[in-house]
Specification:
CATH topology of the largest domain: Rossmann fold
Order of helices and strands: EHEEHEHEHEHEEHEHEHEHEHEHHHHH
Number of helices: 15
Number of domains: 2
CATH superfamily of the largest domain: Glycogen Phosphorylase B
Distance between the termini: 21 Å
Strand order of the largest sheet: 3-2-1-4-5-6-7
Strand content: 15-25%
Helix content: 40-55%
CATH class of the largest domain: Alpha Beta
Number of strands: 13
Radius of gyration: 22 Å
Length: about 375
Amino acid sequence: MNISVLYIVSPTRKYAGIERVVDEICDQLARRYGQELDITVLHLADYPGHDLGPRAYRNRMSDVKGRLDLFQVVRREIARQPYDIIVVPQIEATVLFWLASLGLKRRFVLYLHGNPAHENTHYKAHILFFFFRHWVLKKLTFVFGTSPRQLAAFAKEFPSRVAQCWTPNPVRRFDSVEPIASDRGGTVVFANVGRFCRQKGQDLLLDAFAQVLRARPHARLKLVGYGDEEADLTERASRLGLGDAVSFEHHPQDPQAVLRRADIYVSTSRWEGWSLAICEALRFGLPVVSTDCEFGPSDILIDPRLGTLVPPDDVDTLAAKMIQYMDNLETEKNYGAYRIAYVDRFDASVVVKAHAAALLSAAGSRAGHEVDALIDAVQY
């Protein structure tokens, strides 16, 4: 049998976290489970500077113009064929697209990314979250999530009988994870990759690094990303007197140029849904110092050989741990191979099994025993 699935990606115009995860997972689903799952992805915006290229899934591109066009495009696609399941990342988009499908009797899956508690921050979101809590939630077929703690927090905030399933994010492979040999004169390089925004906490990292630099003048920090707060962060680094010890770099699609030259990865997020950046650092064998934020890092860093967690917003403890890892760098390098092997469990080719099983489970109540047998065949 063939179950028809539509993923809808909101019009963000950036090929970043959600967009890349949906693209990679759906490509793998179509390649590996094409006999069981007919996968279509509706992208509602172009991605300037990024070409998706040929994909195994059915790719539907539409550069929407405004809210009315968004509703019309989504409804037209949903009505185009009797999709068995429609998967939508994030709560607000799920409400909007569910409303766009009224009367079409489709089954929706909410695909959680990030932290819903930090998304209900403006009056339009308040309205959509109210509608979600009191009407849309009970109409859902399933809730997928990127981390166990995220799903637990969601269940506490939005109690319901809707089934949940952990669908891990895929961690991409790179051309090479071998460190780039260079004469750095004894310097130790910290790296951080992410959008320059309050969520990612680079302001905390700069404050902590100022303490590190005073104690260990041979420390260096590379901040890799883009975002609205870049100017503020640059000014903060100047005000802290960090000078050339800090560099801001932009590698929009591939951070390996920095990670291959780094010694220690630091994540200072105030909240997450998962953390692909931490997993990618582990792919390069780097030890990780991370804030124990909601959610993700504590689901990933489950062994001290992988890294350590510090309390959120605790700059002093963060700085102390960064210094500790600097001083024990040679010991930490011994665990590099372990980190690389550990993160293999999140390869796209592996986690796609969990996604396939989740989709088949979501379709199970309609398709019956035949789907139950397929679920047993693709357990994660």
